[in-house]
Amino acid sequence: MHMPDGEDGMLTEYVTAAVLIAAPVNDNSESRPSHMKVAMAAALLLANGEKRYEPPEEKEIKGPQYAAPPLTAEMPSPVRTPLHPQREALPKTDTPLAESMPSPTGQMLLAQASPSNEEILRRLEQLERENRQLRQQNAPQPGFAPASAPPPAAAPRGRTPSQMIPGWRVSLYPWNAEGFTSGDPVRVFNMSNQRFSAVLGQAAVDRTDRRLAREVRRFGHTNEMFVYKLEGWLQVREAGQYQLGFELNCGFGHPCNVLAKIGDQQLFNERHQKFENKMLFQGRTLPAGNYRVEIVFNISTKQFMKFSPERVSLYPQIRGPGEYNFRDFRQDELLTEAHASIPSGPPR
Fold first, then answer.
1. Are 254 and 299 in contact (CB under 8 A)?
2. Strand duo 57-60 + 278-286: pairing
3. DSSP label at 86?
4. How many of the other CB atoms lie within 10 Å of CB of 315?
5. Dist. CA 284–CA 61, nearest whole Å
6. Residue 58 — φ and ψ, nearest 5°?
7. 302 vs 211: CA distance, rounded Å
């Protein structure tokens, strides 16, 4: 019997697995050889139709060479909450919030007569004299250089600033082939670091749309696509060589875009490239401090023979000083700003 290419090897694996399982063995599991246990586990995986895990192939992307490390920055200050619960809630907006001035103390304010021109001139002259005295007192002495402000210190290890939470600020922008993030995002939310797939955001599409409802019934997903932007803060406690890695799958040989920045420096900007099970990475020597991190990712085509958004994924990881493998970020290592108007978790 003729078997199509590739199916005879699969048939051999099934037969081998069946023989191994059917072969009589001692009930004592400790007496089974190690290769017998591996063969039985492989047979179970094949029976369930699961794909064997293969670690991604590491690929270092050569980026611009900078003479200095990325700039550190201060984390956002805590947002002050209303002191009185009976006040109306603040409007949900991403613009800076204006705080109201303190209310009157309740004491009766007495009306005062407006001062005369002579009184105003006298007060102005007094202010000028006080300003001159202050400038003379604060003037640097000859031979002494003014002390520079110390760099911002990182928070103690294991402690997260009160205004920050672990994870990323995720923004979904309308799809475009170049991955531009201009204009307002479609959705904004906070998420912990994980393997992000192109299914993210589809749960919040308008299900009353007949076309989208038909796609969900037929394929289990829609063809809705976005440009994904991830923003966060990397807290470096120990100075040294750090490598940011991105496990990337564009899916079925489709091209995609990925842009990565840290501080004021760009790590790489890969455009219309086909990546499948690749770990793109680049290293930087980082002093202790806080660094803004930005990632933009999207598929750069909208013409598919077959579109499976679950096959399109991005998984940010890090490798610190003296570490051999890439790993997930610690809870106090990757942070984003908490805001009352921004939900946590994927949109529903």
1. yes
2. parallel
3. T
4. 18
5. 12
6. -75, 140
7. 17
AA identity, residue 82: P
Per-position DSSP letters for 180-230, written without gaps between them? ---S--SEEEEE-S--EETTTTGGGS-TTSHHHHHHHHHHSS----EEEEE
The model carries a pTM of 0.62
Cα–Cα distance, 83 to 310 (Å, whole number)? 45
**Residues 222-250: b if buried by 16+ CB within 10 A, e if exposed:** bebbbbbbbbbbbbbbeeeebbbbbbbbb
Q: Which residues lie across from 169 on neighbouring strands?
A: 190, 231
Task: Using the structure block, give the residue that is written with the tokens 């997903």.
Answer: 221
Q: Which helix (H) or strand (E) holds 21?
A: helix 7-22
pLDDT in tens, 260-289: 999 999 999 999 999 999 999 999 999 999
Q: Is 81 helix (H, G, I), strand (E, B) or coil?
A: coil
Tens of pLDDT, residues 79-115: 554 444 444 444 555 545 445 555 554 444 444 566 7
